[in-house]
Amino acid sequence: MAKRKAFITGITGQDGSYLAEILLEKDYEVYGMIRRSSSFNTARIDHIFGDVELVFGDLTDGSVLNRLMRTIQPDEVYNLGAQSHVQVSFEIPEFTADTTGMGTLRLLDAIREEGVRCRFYEAGSSEMFGKVLETPQTEATPFYPRSPYGVSKVFGYWITRNYREAYGMYAVNGILFNHESPRRGPTFVTRKVTRAIGAILRGEQDELRLGNLEAKRDWGFARDYMEGAWQMLQAEEPDDYILATGETHSVRELLDEAFGYVELDWNKYVKIDERYFRPSEVDLLLGDASKAREKLGWEPRVRFPELVRMMVDHDRERRHTEEHYV
Ligand code: NAP
Ligand code: G4F
């Protein structure tokens, strides 16, 4: 029997790298779209480089998306590509909307135009709940996005539903709460903290500049969430699902957990820096993943303390040469 073909946008990102591994383990033929970069941007997938088919493209370039859908004819499409940083979205709102919002439309329309019969996954986000209208958040909670990123994801969500309803496409929204890993981008708060701990332990850093310590997030492990994304596309009918742990912790609690693990007092290192406060903040996220549990049998395996320890252990052992400012 011919192998199933999966097409992933955002394969070079945290989630794309885990999803590609999962699909290879399930014997898929994996195609990943990458952007041309002046330096290497494939570090997260270098270990599977020979096993995946990489093709150049960009979510802002509709003609390429049409050609890729026509020539590859995938069975499953996972749209993970995005300008995914909330604070950066305030700096580059138009690019964020073009990639994170319009990119979803371009890809859906390429599938429709080329008559490809595939299942489509959209990487929706808990940022769509923003200034939350109820707690915990469920699939029925109305959206109130608080950033150009969140607004772009709301567009991606509704255009995915619209293509499902208008054209009968098998298109689903995963509404994923924050998920982290040792592959998390270094400018997201969990990784910024765990990398700093590694550098402090090596005597390379004595200060960690952060913004709002009171914000609360529902943090899970990225690989668990990518298993869930795959499960969503295996269901009989297309639907939308939340993936979350059902626990929320503040950035302050993250500091307690991470620094406490290596027996350091974070108060000696952390400085509050106005640059890391957002023009409008999302104060509290807490997800209810009952629907995914009941309909897909999905469960998060890694809990907050284990996740933090996994990331600290990784960052205390490795040296990183990248420089990041956000
Ligand atoms: P990430 O590490 O920032 O990866 C983003 C990926 O998108 C990278 O491969 C990046 O390529 C690619 N990309 C950026 N702009 C693009 C463009 N114009 N055209 C094509 N590709 C582009 O993000 P992640 O954490 O893996 O998240 C994956 C998806 O889930 C994103 O859509 C994100 O918004 C969404 N999401 C994430 C979370 C979370 O907590 N991680 C939660 C909810 C939803 P380069 O490597 O070339 O930059
Ligand atoms: O780690 P963060 O940047 O993640 P954020 O904004 O929650 O977004 C992530 O999760 C979303 C799902 O809810 C995804 F859709 C999105 O793509 C991304 O993956 O910030 C978490 C919290 C915020 O409240 C922020 O204000 O940490 C606070 N924070 C405090 N100091 C900081 C910092 N965030 C960053 N990045 N850097 C700081 O220095």
Give the key terms.
326 residues, alpha/beta, Rossmann fold, UDP-galactose 4-epimerase, domain 1, seven-stranded parallel sheet, two-stranded parallel ribbon, 10 helices, 39% helix, globular, disordered C terminus, binds NADP nicotinamide-adenine-dinucleotide phosphate, binds ligand G4F
User: What's the assembly state of these chains?
Assistant: single chain
Shape: globular
Count of individual domains: 2
The SSE string, one letter per element, is EHEEHEHHEHEEHEEEHEEHEHH
The distinct bound ligands, ions and cofactors come out as: NADP nicotinamide-adenine-dinucleotide phosphate, ligand G4F
Count of DSSP-assigned helices: 10
CATH class of the largest domain: Alpha Beta
- Measure the end-to-end span: 47 Å
Main pleated-sheet profile: 7 strands, parallel
Gross CATH architecture of the largest domain: 3-Layer(aba) Sandwich
**What integer is the average pLDDT?**
97
